[in-house]
Specification:
Helix 1 packs antiparallel against helix 2 and helix 18 packs parallel to helix 19. This protein is α/β, with parallel strands linked by helices and 563 residues long. Strand 11, helix 16 and strand 12 form a beta-alpha-beta unit. The chain contains 22 helices and 16 strands. It folds into four domains: 148 residues, DNA polymerase, domain 1, CATH 1.10.150.110; 89 residues, 2-Layer Sandwich (Beta Polymerase, domain 2), CATH 3.30.460; 67 residues, Beta Polymerase, domain 3 (2-Layer Sandwich), CATH 3.30.210.10; 236 residues, Alpha-Beta Barrel (TIM Barrel), CATH 3.20.20. The strands form four sheets. It has a seven-stranded parallel beta sheet with strand order 10-11-12-13-14-15-16. The structure holds one DNA strand of 29 nucleotides.
DNA sequence: GCCGTTTTCGGCCCGACTGTTTTCAGTCG
């Protein structure tokens, strides 16, 4: 698993070094493409018979990959890394500095890393380079400072509310007729680099001005007639594009991306003797809506979440992605009995409010002492109370469950006799999240194969930007989950989103069930479902793949599949 | 470096903005 990640990093690095060295641009993008292909693979690339069967990976890269999987070394990579000072790669991350500048910094004034770049600014050497005026140097200084404090991309759970707030504000500006967000946010990615906002207005300069003067703008990065760019106090960059109302669709398509989707779409246009850009499709002159542009290219409208050039151009019309309204149960929630903030009754009422037919109480098991995990006797008493409350509450089924720890050796935190008393068992890894792939996979397989386990909760245990989590052998996990009818959870919490998009795709492709839960501890946590759904859609999930979309009786039957 | 119902060679997406320049290179998305 981590071989793919390691290799992807190496190909990214090779691409960057080639760029600094001024190599052929297509060779550079070919390397980036290989890196991306590796990042998106769930099976270990070393297991493949023919690596070149993957689109974007040709003979040359396949040979390099093979050399690495066999020997742990890649000759071409090592040679490239040796050919430049390693600190130059860090300089490439400074906004406003590209490959050409890095090359000149290195060759002409001996700058080899961020530190020597800072020194060159202080002692005035930077000024000696062509096109290095006071303003440019000031921007570079600020970018270096910004880079030091903001290394991570922003979680969608942070970015989406900010974007909504900005749009609600900008909507009120006179002349604005249409406004929405695009980019990776619209594609529902788990982390966002910057917020892209697209707008139509009768007064362009007013909108641009007001945008740059918004309260939380820390710095204006660019301010043109049709494009403005600012950085917020929160650290996020926000780009505003102002476009003609009747070209909104073309612009939305273009700025939603992904870049790879756009490139393939444009190549498709060219092959049909057409030309596509952000202003429309010529010669047919179509630009108003995305639907019309796709239709003219003989394609159905493609949902933003799957616009990654991962096969969406041949997706069948009947492949209708899951939506939030398909969800009619939440099977992983906590109460005050462990570390939640709702009572069983409150949870039941919440479920009814959301229109669910079923909600599950799944408090932590005894191993989670810090989360006030339940010991067997407390759990037995809780099961009784849940059943009592369930009897008295009309309109919803409250399941007695547990989020039982999968201990490091793969055994569960409660014995079978107790587990048998539960309506639903969510088994999750919480500790020992540093385990190696083989051990971690064996651990989860044991839980998947356990006849009393219904769902594997947040299978990898990762926390976005904070903790890598278990690097599982996903194909084996999915195969076992399909065989034993155990669902794999997509935990909707925006800190987790675990399974991640590519894992979701593997799960659905492998005919295993997905469970999309919120893991709610507070009433407002139920809102996190939107992030789970976006991630599920990115993984091409349909309602048929997800147990939370089952009707009441169907779910009951599934819960009793091993009874 | 990759790819091919036009092609095994010759292409490979395209435009806006900045800062510096005095017509455009570099960067970004």
């Amino acid at each position: 698993m981590s071989t793919n990640t390691d290799l992807a990093k190496m190909f990214h690095t090779m691409a960057t070094i080639l760029e600094i060295k001024g190599e052929n641009a297509f060779k550079i993008s070919a390397n980036t493409k290989v890196a991306r292909a590796l990042e998106d693979m769930v099976e270990d690339v070393g297991e493949l018979d023919d690596i070149t069967s993957i689109s974007g990976i040709g003979k040359s890269s396949a040979k390099k990959i093979q050399q690495y999987t066999k020997t742990g070394k890649m000759y071409d990579y090592d040679e490239l890394v040796k050919s430049i000072p390693s600190g130059l790669l860090d300089i490439m991350n400074v906004q406003g500095i590209g490959a050409k500048t890095v090359r000149r910094l290195w060759k002409e004034i001996d700058v080899v890393d961020i530190q020597t770049l800072k020194e060159a600014i202080t002692d005035g050497r930077l000024e000696s380079l062509p096109r290095m005026g006071a303003k440019t140097i000031q921007n570079i200084s600020e970018s270096i400072e910004f880079l030091a404090s903001n290394a991570d991309r922003t979680r969608i759970g942070i970015a989406l509310p900010i974007a909504s707030r900005l749009i609600n504000h900008l909507k009120t500006i006179k002349g604005v007729t249409k406004i929405t967000f695009a980019g990776s946010l619209r594609r529902g990615m788990e982390t966002i680099g910057d917020i892209d906002i697209l707008a139509s207005t009768s007064d362009e300069s007013l909108l641009a001005k007001q945008f740059c003067e918004m309260q939380d703008v820390e710095k204006i990065l660019a301010q043109g007639k049709t494009k403005c760019s600012v950085r917020l106090n929160a650290g996020m960059q926000v780009d505003l594009r102002i476009v003609d109302k009747d070209k909104f669709g073309a612009a939305l398509l273009y700025f939603t991306g992904s870049k790879e989707h756009n490139i393939t779409l444009r190549e498709r246009a060219i092959s049909q003797k057409k030309k596509l850009n952000e202003y429309g499709l010529s010669p047919s002159n179509i630009s108003c809506t995305e639907e019309a542009i796709y239709a003219d290219l003989e394609l159905p409208w493609i949902p933003p979440e799957i616009r990654e050039d991962h096969g969406e151009f041949s997706v069948s019309k009947s492949h209708s992605l899951i939506t939030i309204s398909d969800i009619c149960s939440d099977l992983h929630c906590h109460t005050t009995a462990s570390d939640g903030h709702m009572s069983i009754e409150e949870l039941g009422k919440m479920g009814m409010q959301l229109g669910y037919h079923t909600i599950a109480v799944t408090d932590h098991s005894q191993a989670q002492g810090q989360a006030n995990g339940l010991k067997p006797d407390r759990l037995r008493r809780q099961i009784d109370s849940i059943h009592e409350i369930n009897e008295s509450m009309q309109g919803i089924t409250i399941l007695a469950g547990s989020e039982v720890d999968i201990l490091p050796d793969g055994t569960l935190d409660f014995d079978d006799e107790l587990l048998e008393m539960l309506d639903i068992v969510v088994a999750s890894p919480h500790a020992a999240l540093q385990q190696k792939t083989a051990e971690a996979t064996k651990r989860l397989l044991a839980a998947i194969e356990h006849p009393l386990v219904h769902i594997i909760g947040h299978p990898t245990g990762r926390i976005i930007n904070k903790r890598k989590g278990l690097e599982l052998d996903i194909p084996s996990i999915v195969a076992a989950a399909a065989e034993h009818q155990t669902a794999l959870e997509l935990n909707s919490n925006s800190h987790r989103l675990d399974l991640r998009d590519t894992h979701v795709r593997a799960t659905c492709d492998g005919n295993a069930f997905l469970a999309i839960n919120t893991d709610s501890h507070h009433p407002e946590d139920f809102d996190q479902l939107q992030f789970g759904i976006l991630t599920a859609r990115r993984g091409w999930a349909t309602p048929r793949d997800c147990i939370n979309c089952m009707k009441h009786d169907e779910l009951q039957t599934w819960l009793c599949r091993n009874c």
